[in-house]
Amino acid sequence: MSVKIGNIDIGEFPLLLAPMEDVSDPPFRALCKENGADVMYTEFISSEGLIRDAFKSTQKLDIYDFERPIGIQIFGNEISSMRQATEICAKENPEFIDINYGCPVKKVANKGAGAGILKDIPKMISMTKEIVESTSIPVTVKTRLGWDENSKYIVEVAERLQDVGIKAISIHGRTRKQMYKGEADWTLIGEVKNNPNMKIPIFGNGDVNTPEKVKEVKNRYGVDGVMIGRGAIGYPWIFNEIKHYLKTNTLLEKPNISERVRVCKQHLKHSIIWKGEKLGIAEMKRHYSSYFKAIPNFKEYRTRMVTSNSEKEVLEILNDVKAKFINY
After folding, report:
1. Per the residue annotation, which of 32, 89, 103, 264 is the catalytic one?
2. Residue 103 is a catalytic residue
């Protein structure tokens, strides 16, 4: 049966690309879409930045028709600013507005935004209600299990968020205190899904980085879909690999070196088109090691790539990589 967010059909057991700061930009989203991702989210956008028309924030509003369905994700700790930001986002006509209640980084959480709001559940509920009432676009939420081990109230929180009108929730199976350490705990995500009062789609997130793991959480916890974040960095093929495995119970062959080089070049090209050569090259540097993970003796090539500031030079290095590691 197809999963719907509001009236928007997102397919049977959809795979969502997680919103990741400095990663989930249009060039990266394009690759993930091409490789089987069903739903996209922008990088998270500061509500304060949006209402002040800050370039870094407004640039993240860029969405393209080929990415749809797509959600614009916002964060902030002031209800009035979040309402205004929602109105600004609505003008871009996304399929969803997503509220970030999960970002654990200090500069966000310590200001009461992102996962910081998990210390003030009544405010989280009232903020969500205001945002839902301020737009006709379906509102979704991404959050965590709780602030720490002693405040994992997600089963109750998810129901209260549904009651004020959200149309789907994505839950990362860690607390804010855990950051990204330790293993994601899916048991509470399963409890949310199996709460008979829940009628909206429940998406799980955290450590779903192989097709086998996705099949396991699908069967064990009954989630409506999964959201993939770090598992897709430098590896957009993960979406099609998961779909193939769920359908056939067999694993697709891993991308060989020429495919890795081809997609890395494509990513670089899109990045330069979107951000200009200087910034496009600079921001690609965080991706190279992920594209060529597990290839032995790669360090020399990675060093050359991250110290190069010329598109021509990076492309030449990538050609060298393809020739040198032909058997991978």
Report:
1. 103
2. yes
CATH of 4-248, one of 3.20.20.70, 2.40.33.20, 3.30.56.70, 3.40.50.1980: 3.20.20.70
Work out the number of other CB atoms within 10 angstroms of the CB of residue 202.
23
Query: Where are the domain boundaries for CATH 3.20.20.70 in the chain?
Result: 4-248
Bridge partners of residue 41, in order along the sequence? 71
Beta bridge partners of 169: 141, 202
Domain with CATH 1.10.1200 in the chain: 257-324
Distance CA 177, CA 186 (A): 16
What are the Cα distances from residue 136, in Å, to 94, 96, 161, 247? 11, 10, 17, 35
Q: Which residue has the tokens 């099609």?
A: 240
The torsion angle over the Cα atoms of residues 45, 233, 114 and 183, rounded to 10 degrees, is 170
Residue 153's SS3 state is coil
pLDDT tens digit string along 16-39? 999 998 899 999 999 999 999 999
114-133 tens-digit pLDDT: 999 999 999 999 999 999 99
Query: Tell me, which fold does domain 257-324 have in CATH?
Result: 1.10.1200
The pTM score is 0.94
Phi then psi dihedrals of residue 84, to 5 deg:
-60, -40
